[in-house]
Specification:
Helix content is 48%, strand content 10%. By secondary structure, the protein is of the alpha/beta class. Among the domains are: 117 residues, 3-Layer(aba) Sandwich (Rossmann fold), CATH 3.40.50.300; 57 residues, no CATH class. The protein has a five-stranded parallel β-sheet, sandwiched between helices. Helix 6 links the parallel strand 3 and strand 4. The longest helix has 20 residues. The N and C termini lie far apart (64 Å).
């Protein structure tokens, strides 16, 4: 799929949870690494250049991969400018953690110029190394009968470890310690840098409740109540505009 997309669109945006394998993909997938320069915004020198000379950075190579781009949203408009000047397919591959801020900025800057891919943690077929054959459900529809495939039973330990590559492929790691570090990094690094959230303890309660409600019908008022969040309020930035939009300006004398 990547090879096909690289021939069709100037920008591919790869998003997904932290530690889902995005950086590994950009650095080791042959169709992405061939003749393509890789730069990561985790590198302080690259991050500094992104702030000072964003246009020069995006023009640093004919084919470029920019990783952790959510750290430098100022790059989105220079990428748009570069693409508008030269719409060669596959010119840019951008990668960043999945968050609304990143997706909003990319959508605003790169509408009609990009294709979005989302990387998820490994599924069971990937963890078992069975990628050479089609999924069982695909074989069922193509062959007309349920394949006689022997699959190891799924046990509780495997479910609790999940599918993040580092955990899924390294049974020696302590899953509880790994996940605690993951949540701590998400709260203290990602959330704090993207949104002005003062009550991280409250946000952590919200995260815990969302996990407990996983698979259930979303009840935002219930989540807000149980996590002790205050009721949000809506304001117009200008009172005159608010009066006009609401029809209340007709009451003025």
């Amino acid at each position: 799929m990547l090879e096909r997309l690289l021939k069709q669109t100037p920008v591919i945006v790869v998003s997904g949870p932290r530690q889902s394998g995005k950086s590994t993909l950009l650095q080791h997938e042959p169709v992405l690494t061939k003749e393509r320069q890789y730069l990561t915004l985790d590198n302080l020198n690259v991050a500094d250049q992104a702030r000072r000379q964003p246009l020069a950075l995006v023009n640093a190579a004919p084919w470029l991969a920019l990783d952790e781009i959510q750290r430098a949203p100022e790059l989105f408009l220079p990428v748009k400018q570069a693409v508008d000047e030269d719409r060669r397919p596959g010119r840019f591959v951008l990668s960043g953690s999945a968050n609304l801020l990143l997706l909003e900025k990319v959508a605003d800057s790169l509408a009609g110029r990009s294709f979005y891919l989302t990387m998820h943690p490994l599924n069971r077929r990937e963890k078992l190394g069975r990628l050479r054959q089609p999924p069982v459900i695909v074989r069922f529809f193509t062959e007309g009968a349920w394949p006689k495939t022997v699959v190891p039973p799924l046990d509780e330990a495997e479910v609790l470890r999940g599918g993040f590559p580092e955990l899924g492929l390294n049974p020696a790691l302590d899953a509880s310690v790994w996940f605690e570090g993951y949540v701590k990094t998400y709260l203290e690094r990602d959330v704090s840098s993207l949104r002005q959230i003062d009550d991280l303890a409250g946000f952590r309660r919200l995260t815990r409740l969302a996990a407990l409600w996983s698979g259930g019908v979303i009840n935002l008022s219930g989540l807000a109540r149980d996590s002790q969040f205050k009721s949000p309020k809506l304001y117009f930035a200008d009172s005159g505009l608010a009066a006009h939009a609401s029809g209340a300006d007709g009451l003025l004398v």
